[in-house]
Write a structure and sequence with these properties.
- The protein contains nine helices and nine strands.
- With 282 residues, it is of the alpha/beta class.
- It has one domain: Rossmann fold.
- The protein has a five-stranded mixed beta barrel.
- A hairpin with a 2-residue loop joins strand 3 and strand 4.
- The radius of gyration is 18 Å and the shape is globular.
- The structure holds hypoxanthine.
- The site of hypoxanthine has 13 residues, from strand 5, strand 8 and strand 9.
């Protein structure tokens, strides 16, 4: 049986487990999505811990996810990197998918950088683009499948957390500057998080556009909600791996292989950008 509900003691136990295995005490964490794992290999002085070994930690079964936590240095800064994440569509509850963010909180993480693969909804976007997340829509969360449902532990954060500026303005400005300095084109927009795992129908794509979303994916929004509840600063990037299809036709389909393939093309840009941002984070 996998545990479905957690208390502060569970988060602290997992944090202690990690801190017993690594003397690094990072204040910055990264969560890497589908196909974006190679960034974890760039970590120096690395201590690697398999998710399977950390008590309570959910494990992704999705191809392209590395399933380990890496602590070490990037650009001289200590970081905690999650190589792969778990998803709601795998059967995990929202509380299980955000267990790692709570453990980060218990480890003293103050800044969380999230990355994901996403479908482009904005008609200006192309496969291979990189998008700075300016805001999000948590569609399952809006109808009750959010990670903060249930009793609130005031030791973790407030009952009604503010989400007005979920994605830190200072970190967004820093990202724009680093992208410009490195000649990296950076799109900006709203990410809509869905439950998945089926890709969207053309009618759903048209609906999501009307809602004001620029990119669509199946992760991230619960992690960000909990990180904000925990008072962390958040920065997010979407790798646009495909453009969402607005009219059904026999020629165009979306598949996970394409997501991984284009994701691997976005990785070098994202690594440059993340290195530049991390180098200048306070
Ligand atoms: N839809 C949902 N999630 C995704 C997509 C998409 O088109 N591409 C990558 N993740």
């Amino acid at each position: 049986m996998v545990q479905a509900e957690f208390t502060l003691a569970d988060y602290q136990a997992a944090a202690q487990f990690i801190q017993d295995r690594s003397a690094h005490r990072p204040r910055i964490a990264l969560i890497l999505g589908s196909g974006l794992g190679p960034l974890a290999d760039a970590v120096e002085d690395a201590h690697r811990i398999s998710y399977a070994d950390i008590p309570g930690w959910p494990r992704s079964q999705v191809v392209g996810h590395g399933n380990r936590l890496v602590l070490g240095r990037l650009e001289g800064k200590l970081v905690m990197v999650m190589q792969g994440r778990s998803h709601f569509y795998e059967g995990w509850t929202p509380a299980q998918t955000v267990f790692p963010v709570r453990v980060m909180q218990a480890c003293g993480i103050r800044t969380l950088i999230v990355t994901n693969a996403a479908g482009g909804l904005n008609p200006d976007f192309s496969a291979g683009d990189l998008m700075l997340m300016t805001d999000h829509i948590n569609l399952p969360g809006l109808v009750g499948f959010g990670p903060l449902r249930g009793p609130n532990d005031d030791a973790l954060g407030p009952r009604f957390p503010d989400m007005t500026v979920a994605y830190d303005l200072g970190l967004r400005r820093l990202s724009e500057r680093v992208a410009a300095e490195n000649g990296i084109g950076l799109r900006q927009g709203v990410y809509v998080g869905l439950a998945g795992p089926a890709f969207e129908t053309p009618a759903e794509v048209r609906m999501l556009r009307m809602l004001g979303s620029d990119a669509v994916g199946m992760s991230t929004v619960n992690e960000v909600t909990v990180a904000r509840h925990a008072g962390m600063r958040v920065l997010g990037f979407s790798g646009i791996t495909n453009v969402a299809i607005t009219e059904g036709s026999a020629e165009k389909v979306v598949n996970h292989e394409e997501v991984l393939d284009v994701g691997s093309r976005i990785v070098p840009k994202l690594i440059t950008l993340l290195r530049g941002v991390i180098a200048q984070i306070e």
